[in-house]
Amino acid sequence: MAKKKSSSLRSKKGNVKAKAYKKYGNKRGKFPVFDKRSANSALKLRGHAKSKAERKSIINRAAKYAPEAARKAREADRKAGRI
């Protein structure tokens, strides 16, 4: 059985490791996006972003792994005037 790419980026409990924050996070090391599960989590937490640009960046990076969820998030944020 092939080893998953993201398995080394998560602990045994499934939490994201510090290594993943550094490699896949945004400029400040927040919101790491490296698989579908982390993409969905980042989209849920995008309200904690400091600016409109950071929120947009989260959605764009998450679109690679969860395109449908990112599309819905982008539409909701445009309607609300958040991006």
Structure characterization notes:
The structure is a single chain. This protein is mostly helical and 83 residues long. The protein is built from 4 helices and no strands. The longest helix is centred in the last third of the chain and has 14 residues. It is globular. The termini are far apart. The mean pLDDT is 90.
Task: List its salient traits.
83 residues; mainly alpha; globular
Global mean pLDDT: 90
**Which ranges are low-confidence, i.e. pLDDT below 50, for 5 or more consecutive residues?**
none
Q: What is the first-to-last residue Cα distance?
A: 42 Å
* Strand composition percent: under 5%
Gyration radius (Cα, Å) is 13 Å
Q: Main β-sheet, in a few words?
A: none
Number of helices: 4
Helix content: 40-55%
Structural class: mainly alpha
Order of helices and strands: HHHH
Q: What form results from the Cα inertia axes?
A: globular
Number of strands: 0
